[in-house]
Every structure is written in structure tokens, then in C-alpha cells.
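thought: fold this chain, then report.
action: predict
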Amino acid sequence: MEDDLPRAKGDAADLLAKELLDPYSQDELAARIELLEAEIVRVRAHRDKVAAHRTAADALFRPRSD
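observation:
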């Protein structure tokens, strides 16, 4: 499955981490921080949703030990 393959290097987060910040003003940096913090919240929520889904699937397909 495609989900089992490693992610390609150079995704958006990797590119952001390499971007020079010198050209940005303090206001632009503050706005960027707000955007990145919102993205962290979004990613964490998705991670938690995926974990809950996995837990439910594991419970459903776990062999019963009656």
C-alpha cells in the first residue's frame, strides 16, 4: 500500500524549515508563528483521530480469549 512507503523528503514542513527568515518583519514572523501553531493543533488532532481509529480497529479484530 502507498501508506506503507516512506514519505518523500522535501515535504512542505521540510521546505519551511530551510527557508531563510531574514527577509521577514516582526509582524510577518508573528503571523507565521500563529499559522504554524494552528497547523500543529490541526496535525495533533488528526494524529489523535488516527490513533483512536487504530485502537478501535485493533479491538475489533483482536482474537477473543474466551
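thought: worth noting. The chain has one domain: 11-61.
final: C-alpha cells above.
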